Amino acid sequence: MKSIQKRAQYRGKWFEYEVAKLVHGKVVGRSKAIVVGNSTFECDPNHPLDIINEWSGIECKYLKSLPKTVTNAMEQAVKNASLTRPVGNTDPTPLTPITIMGDREGHRIVVMPLNVYLGLHE
Asked: Do 79 and 52 share a structural domain?
């Protein structure tokens, strides 16, 4: 059982480093402060974010598979955004596909493809 937990921890850490590379950020770990670009961020070492870049704090979750509800909603947003254009606009750029999900307790999350997120701050 212990080796399975270790492998899961390794996959989670690997995922953090992969995402940090993509978003030009740094993995926080147990640091009290971290320098990203021209900014220094003070961190709580007891409750750190996984990654910090110059414009966001990121918490990573690596799952065996995403819940079907999330993937279905995201696929629908991507498909429908690519088919929708403003009237009279000849620009071939599709709308940005974003899914906003919520529950009865008032929790709300925004879900978007990683490439769209990365394109927001190019």
From this structure: no
Rg (CA), the chain: 18
Cα 104 from chain centroid (whole Å): 23
Are 54 and 77 found together in one domain? no
Q: Which among 59, 58, 54, 17 has a CA at the least distance from the CA of 36?
A: 54
Is residue 99 within 8 Å of residue 112, measured between CB atoms?
Answer: yes
Rounded to two decimals, the pTM is 0.75
Nearest to 77 by CA among 61, 57, 98, 51: 98
In a structure prediction context, what are the per-residue pLDDT tens digits for the chain, which is 122 residues long? 567 677 777 788 899 999 999 999 999 988 888 888 888 988 888 888 899 988 889 999 988 889 999 999 999 999 998 888 777 777 777 788 999 999 999 999 999 888 888 888 76
Residues 45, 9 share a domain: yes
> Is 106 in the same domain as 77?
yes
What DSSP line would sit under 54-89, residue for residue? SS-EE-----SS--HHHHHHHHHHHHHHHH---TT-
